[in-house]
Each structure stands twice: as C-alpha cells, then as structure tokens.
Amino acid sequence: MDGMYGVVLCSRCRKAMGADLRNETASCQCGNVLKLKEMKKFFESTDQREVASAVARMNAELEGGTEEWEALAEESAKPDVDDPYSRMVSEASTLTDSQERMELVVRGLTDIQGSFTRDDLQKALRMLGVKEVDKCLELMLRESIIYEPETGVFRAV
Ligand SMILES: [Zn+2]
Predict the structure, then answer these.
(1) Domain assignment of residue 114, given as a range
(2) How far is ligand 1, taken at its centre, from the CA of residue 80, in Å?
C-alpha cells in the first residue's frame, strides 16, 4: 500500500488532505504548512484518484465524530493482507497462548520459505512485539517445536 500520494491530517484545521509525498511539505487550504515526513499517513497509494476519494471519505467521517475517526485510524494500521508474512503475523496476534502463537509463526515461516533464520524470526516477532528472539529459539528447540537442520537454519517440526 506504499505510494507516492498520501492522506495526512492538518494539525491546525483537523481536515484530511491529499499530498504528494515526494515533496517535503504541503500547504493546507487553511494556510498551515505541513511537514510531510513527520506526519502519520492515513492512506497511501500511487493512484491520485484513490487518495482523493480517501480524503473525501475521511473528511466525511471526521464530521461524523471522533469514534469513527479512531476506527479509521485503526483500520489503516492493520498489516497488508496480501503479504503472506503480515497475514501470518496478524493471524498469530489473535492467539492469546504464547506457545501456540510461536508455533503458528514458525510453522508459517516454514510454509512460506521452507526454512527460516534467526533474522526471519526476529522480523516476525518484532511485528508481534516480542523482543527475546534468542530465548524463543532456545525454548522452541528445547521443546522440539523447531529443529536446526543446518547451523543457523531452522524449521518447524
Ligand atoms: Zn489546515
């Protein structure tokens, strides 16, 4: 969903506007100059028309109230479901049991790539907010959830 056009929210008049993200700044119709790099992008696309309709939709929702606005912000923070990696992570994030979650992640990585490295696992775990990659590897090796066919290469059992 990365694109060169994005939807940002003006900090002064609280209106959504479309901006060409190749530019450093954008001027809102209220006169406020927005520093694009520092701003949250609520929608991104290479298609200017899609961005324009996202702006219209957002401004309509903004007038509707903050609750809808929050829901919309949440929506845009969800991972891209076309990416198998993100899909696997978002599936795993719905599980509350951490062992089940780990198993789903390592099985997902094995399905997607055949095997995985510490870096691959770190990437997936980071998306889930888990920092202790080495501890996870150690534990999963010990519990025979994964095995290490070659040094530094892991597979789900
Ligand atoms: Zn403005």
Answers:
(1) 84-156
(2) 29
